[in-house]
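stage 2 :: seqdesign
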């Protein structure tokens, strides 16, 4: 006989590891679709022969992000329809369906098309993928503040989200290098397309598991503003800029993604040309995640003891130290260089792991901060603006990296079967690989410094301030409940 779940004072299932597993599955689903974005630059520069076009096209599609993210966020906030479970879960369900094919649309292997046709294919494919990704990801991020209002629970959800994110990156990271490269270290575009389709299906399954096992405990009615005005992107941006914790957390996240996404393109070239071993690239990056996995189970206790901001700052300092170590380059001894690279990656990843396990909880607190200072609850808009700037970094990072890489020898050096210029890895010199190795160190350092600035100098919700904010918001909710009860009682008396 199935044991009935334990209920809290409000009749909801008590928060447990089940909630953490479910929330982790959501980001696993997101990253099943997102993980191949790091391969997008190689696909379009090496396989499709669009190295000069790609940075420009990537910037163009960010304009769509500027409209897409805040718009969808405002639609979710303004949606007052009564869904069977929850409106956030309903949007996630719809977005997960589109992601089955959305990711594959970015990797259509049509090498024989004219450059202008390829540009259209890229923009159309990216727009389709990004629309469905945003429909799933924006409400998913907002959902954290509705699953529980307890700071320790939120820290647990944030930590497990990081685990889901890591798993979503680790699986493709380890397996894909054995699938998408030929014996000469060149990319096989058709295999990338098939991998994207399979990952879309796996992502859908993960989302369904999350939806079926998510319990909403924070009163969703408090999240809807009855007098919410018509969405204005400039007003939303203005409100976001005045939300200091959201700005600090967003700058830190932008730094993280400039490092991760920007360096990912150069890292793959490093293993193609400098270390000349693409098979171990995923294993090396997997090894660098060990510190993150070791720290994650400790995140909840550490947050309770030290605070989210305090831990995140310490993490950013670790990342700066690891990034500085990456500047030790020994091109005359690639074996020693690989050892140095792995060790410094471990230190860098330790800092990244400490920050990433609390980063989403920090955004949940930033949403509360918006309500604390303005009296308005705007999960969708606040998170959508955060998501937009994250995506901007995800686009600017690879675009900037590809642009800089061109100055250091990463240029078209061959033609494909249609006579179009492409990059042939076999024809790139070892010096190009050395340059890419230096570029990786620079990008990681820039990312770590941005994280430190955002967390230490801008984000203002330390442990003491967070406790004050939570207490005042709790009193406001209780006051609203008392007012509602009194009004209902008066109405009964009048009747």
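stage 2 :: out
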């Amino acid at each position: 006989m199935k044991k009935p779940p334990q209920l809290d004072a409000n009749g909801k299932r008590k928060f447990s590891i089940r909630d953490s597993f479910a929330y982790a599955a959501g980001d696993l689903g997101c990253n099943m679709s997102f993980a191949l974005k790091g391969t997008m630059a190689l696909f379009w520069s090496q396989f499709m022969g669009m190295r000069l076009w790609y940075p420009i096209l990537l910037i163009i599609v960010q304009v769509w992000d500027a409209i897409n993210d805040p718009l969808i966020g405002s639609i979710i906030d303004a949606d007052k329809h009564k869904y069977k479970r929850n409106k956030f879960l309903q949007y996630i369900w719809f977005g997960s369906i589109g992601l089955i094919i959305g990711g594959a649309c970015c990797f259509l292997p049509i090498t024989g098309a004219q450059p202008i046709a390829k540009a259209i294919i890229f923009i159309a494919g990216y727009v389709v993928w990004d629309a469905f990704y945003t429909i799933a990801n924006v409400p998913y991020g907002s959902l954290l503040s509705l699953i529980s209002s307890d700071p320790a629970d939120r820290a647990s959800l944030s930590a497990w989200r990081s685990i889901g994110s890591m798993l979503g990156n680790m699986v493709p990271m380890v397996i894909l290098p054995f699938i998408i490269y030929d014996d000469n270290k060149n990319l096989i575009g058709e295999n990338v397309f098939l991998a994207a389709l399979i990952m879309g299906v796996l992502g859908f399954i993960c989302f369904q598991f999350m939806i079926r096992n998510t319990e909403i405990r924070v009163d969703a009615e408090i999240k809807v503003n009855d007098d919410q005005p018509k969405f204005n992107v400039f007003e939303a941006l203005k409100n976001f800029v005045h939300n200091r914790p959201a700005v600090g957390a967003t700058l830190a996240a932008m730094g993280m993604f400039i490092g991760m996404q920007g360096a990912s393109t150069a890292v793959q070239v490093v293993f193609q040309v400098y270390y000349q071993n693409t098979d171990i690239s995923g294993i090396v990056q997997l090894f660098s995640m060990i510190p993150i996995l070791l720290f994650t189970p400790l995140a909840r206790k550490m947050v309770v003891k030290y605070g989210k901001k305090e831990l995140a700052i310490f993490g950013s300092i670790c990342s700066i130290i690891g990034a500085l170590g990456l500047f030790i380059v020994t091109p005359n001894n690639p074996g020693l260089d690989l050892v140095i690279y792995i060790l410094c990656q471990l230190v860098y990843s330790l800092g990244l792991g400490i920050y990433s396990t609390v980063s989403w909880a920090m955004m949940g607190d930033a949403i509360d901060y918006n309500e604390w200072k303005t009296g308005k609850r705007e999960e969708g808009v606040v998170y959508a603006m955060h998501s937009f700037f994250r995506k901007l970094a995800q686009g600017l990072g690879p675009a900037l990296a590809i642009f800089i890489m061109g100055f250091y020898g990463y240029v078209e050096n061959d033609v494909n079967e249609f006579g179009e210029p492409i990059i042939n890895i076999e024809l790139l010199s070892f010096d190009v690989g050395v340059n890419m190795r230096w570029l990786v160190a620079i990008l990681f350092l820039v990312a770590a410094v941005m994280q430190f600035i955002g967390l230490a100098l801008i984000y203002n919700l330390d442990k003491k301030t967070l406790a004050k904010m939570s207490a005042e918001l709790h009193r406001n909710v209780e006051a609203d409940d008392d007012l509602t009860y009194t009004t209902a009682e008066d109405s009964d008396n009048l009747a």
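stage 3 :: structure notes
- The longest strand covers residues 414-415.
- The first helix runs from residue 17 to 34.
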